[in-house]
Amino acid sequence: MPIKIPLHLPAKEILEKENIFIMDDSRAAKQDIRPLNILILNLMPEKEKTERQLLRLLGNTPLQVNITFLKTATYDAKNTSQYHLEEFYQTFNQVKEKKYDGMIITGAPIELMEFEEVHYWDELKEILDWTERNVTSTLHICWGAQAALYHHYGINKFVLARKCSGVFTHRVLDHTEKLLRGFDDEFIAPHSRNTDISKEALQNHPQLKLLASSDEAGALIISSKDSRRIMITGHLEYEATTLAEEYLRDKEKGIEIVMPENYFPQDNPDKKPANRWRSHAHLFFSNWLNYYVYQETPYEWD
């Protein structure tokens, strides 16, 4: 079924060429069904890329999906045009009286900062608390996952000796979990971060379940016991070239950076990497939307 996006969103043309089933506002208005309403708090600097990545994965769903993009009011994005933000994004004050079936909170390249040092930390805390009463299930990605673990469960991140960057093998730790239904026993996923979360702290917390992890990259997928919060420390939504773009960007800035592991063919940055995690990315988002959003959300919010 289709995903509904604004008529002139730049990602629309790209997704249509990829045969992703989308529709604009005018056609969606004629669909006599109860859509899923998904709110995306996009904290990434290159917002249009992140929009495309997430919309691609949300487009394979059992029902029409209405997307609302959210931006922070207390910090102005510097890498996205003001026109794009004003045209396609809302602030928390504009949505806080509404209810949403699902929400996604993305990562942000600020992980080396203490949470309290982040410009919009107070605003994000308010949003995180708001999700408990107004969102059926919230999916937190990378720094967004670390922020949720810190705010809701008191588990802080720690700085790694060197950046965790590359594509790593992970093991499913709980085959009964619906979120991982259809997953292979082992699967790969990209990571790109300078900080990590203690697996022991996650496993010992009475309100959390560690669902998948890697010997090399650490914890990947964490769920609250009631399944209303899903935290993923990696980036299943990444495109094939995203890690390469990040690596070359940092090299051009003169940042001392390690080459992404298990990524470039023959460890040669001149060779184009393949997307080897696409099927599990689609399965992960499909399972989340089906089992944790669609199957759990009320038909009419009270």
Automatic annotation (TrEMBL):
<dbReference type="InterPro" id="IPR033752">
    <property type="entry name" value="MetA_family"/>
</dbReference>
<dbReference type="GO" id="GO:0019281">
    <property type="term" value="P:L-methionine biosynthetic process from homoserine via O-succinyl-L-homoserine and cystathionine"/>
</dbReference>
<dbReference type="GO" id="GO:0005737">
    <property type="term" value="C:cytoplasm"/>
</dbReference>
<keyword id="KW-0808">Transferase</keyword>
<comment type="function">
    <text>Transfers an acetyl group from acetyl-CoA to L-homoserine, forming acetyl-L-homoserine.</text>
</comment>
<dbReference type="Pfam" id="PF04204">
    <property type="entry name" value="HTS"/>
</dbReference>
<feature type="binding site">
    <location>
        <position position="192"/>
    </location>
    <ligand>
        <name>substrate</name>
    </ligand>
</feature>
<feature type="binding site">
    <location>
        <position position="163"/>
    </location>
    <ligand>
        <name>substrate</name>
    </ligand>
</feature>
<keyword id="KW-0963">Cytoplasm</keyword>
<protein>
    <recommendedName>
        <fullName>Homoserine O-acetyltransferase</fullName>
        <ecNumber>2.3.1.31</ecNumber>
    </recommendedName>
</protein>
<keyword id="KW-0012">Acyltransferase</keyword>
<dbReference type="GO" id="GO:0008899">
    <property type="term" value="F:homoserine O-succinyltransferase activity"/>
</dbReference>
<feature type="active site" description="Acyl-thioester intermediate">
    <location>
        <position position="142"/>
    </location>
</feature>
<feature type="active site" description="Proton acceptor">
    <location>
        <position position="235"/>
    </location>
</feature>
<feature type="active site">
    <location>
        <position position="237"/>
    </location>
</feature>
<comment type="similarity">
    <text>Belongs to the MetA family.</text>
</comment>
<dbReference type="GO" id="GO:0004414">
    <property type="term" value="F:homoserine O-acetyltransferase activity"/>
</dbReference>
<feature type="site" description="Important for substrate specificity">
    <location>
        <position position="192"/>
    </location>
</feature>
<dbReference type="InterPro" id="IPR029062">
    <property type="entry name" value="Class_I_gatase-like"/>
</dbReference>
<dbReference type="InterPro" id="IPR005697">
    <property type="entry name" value="HST_MetA"/>
</dbReference>
<feature type="site" description="Important for acyl-CoA specificity">
    <location>
        <position position="111"/>
    </location>
</feature>
<feature type="binding site">
    <location>
        <position position="249"/>
    </location>
    <ligand>
        <name>substrate</name>
    </ligand>
</feature>
<keyword id="KW-0486">Methionine biosynthesis</keyword>
<comment type="pathway">
    <text>Amino-acid biosynthesis; L-methionine biosynthesis via de novo pathway; O-acetyl-L-homoserine from L-homoserine: step 1/1.</text>
</comment>
<keyword id="KW-0028">Amino-acid biosynthesis</keyword>
